[in-house]
């Protein structure tokens, strides 16, 4: 499988170049097969054009074909370069492999072990530092993001980034001897749908969204 590099996504020119490359790679692809592999809805407008509709973090987006331009639905607002790149990677890599619903760590992803410490630093570690020993706050934040409760750790929730890209966040309640801890996990079939770098981005997104919900709730309760 071709390896893609997300290491310089902060560079606007670099990400624009990557998006162009992904669009070129998808040129001429069979949209019906792509819809099947990605679990997206395909709406044909003609024999050679149409659009895909699918949820990104449970919010509907459309991707035009053959232009491969991604927009929010129904507003038509253009997605960010980052979101567009993630969607195009998804359409490029997805092969339709069944999800296992067995959870693995970032270290278990291809080449993930090399970057696992850094990944945990800006996901699980930040979550634990933010929520501390407040399991109730973690559960409230997860439910606020439409998380699906799972029987892992002291509290765990699954989140759907894309139709076949679930993530899981597990929280372990601390006590007098041990601090709380948290970890972002991925489906064992994750490598069939995105690159490891892409999952690093998604893990960071869900961690910081949970923290943002918690901070907003705390502010609201204090007012």
Describe the structure.
With 223 residues, this protein is an alpha+beta fold. The chain has two domains: 12-93, no CATH class; 103-222, TATA-Binding Protein (2-Layer Sandwich), CATH 3.30.310. It is 41% helix and 22% strand. The chain is built from seven helices and nine strands; from the N terminus they run ααββββαβαααββββα. The chain has helices at residues 12-26, 31-38, 81-93, 112-122, 124-131, 135-144, 196-222, and strands at residues 41-44, 50-56, 59-65, 70-72, 103-104, 148-150, 155-162, 165-172, 181-187. Strands 5-9-8-7-6 form a five-stranded antiparallel β-sheet. A four-stranded antiparallel β-sheet has the order 1-2-3-4, with helices on one face. Strand 7 (155-162) and strand 8 form a beta hairpin. The longest helix is centred in the C-terminal third of the chain and has 27 residues, at 196-222. Mean pLDDT is 92; it is low at 1-10.
């Amino acid at each position: 499988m071709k390896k893609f590099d997300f290491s310089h996504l902060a560079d606007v020119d670099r990400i624009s170049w990557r998006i162009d490359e992904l669009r070129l790679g998808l040129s001429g692809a069979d949209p019906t097969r792509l819809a099947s592999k990605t679990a997206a809805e395909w709406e044909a407008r003609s024999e050679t054009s149409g659009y895909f509709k699918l949820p990104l973090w449970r919010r509907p987006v459309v991707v035009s074909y053959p232009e491969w331009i991604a927009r929010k639905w129904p507003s038509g607002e253009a997605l960010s370069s980052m979101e567009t790149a993630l969607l195009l990677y998804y359409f490029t890599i997805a092969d339709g492999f069944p999800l296992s619903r067995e959870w693995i760590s970032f270290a278990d992803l291809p080449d993930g072990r090399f970057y696992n410490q850094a990944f945990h630093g800006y996901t699980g570690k930040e979550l634990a530092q933010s929520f501390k020993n407040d399991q109730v706050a973690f559960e409230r934040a997860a439910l606020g993001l439409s998380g699906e409760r799972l029987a892992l750790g002291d509290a765990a929730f699954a989140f759907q980034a894309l139709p076949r890209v679930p993530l899981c966040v597990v929280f372990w309640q601390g006590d007098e001897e041990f601090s709380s801890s948290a970890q972002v996990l991925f489906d064992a079939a994750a490598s069939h749908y995105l690159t490891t770098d892409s999952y690093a981005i998604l893990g960071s997104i869900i961690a910081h969204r949970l923290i943002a919900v918690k901070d907003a709730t705390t502010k609201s309760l204090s007012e």
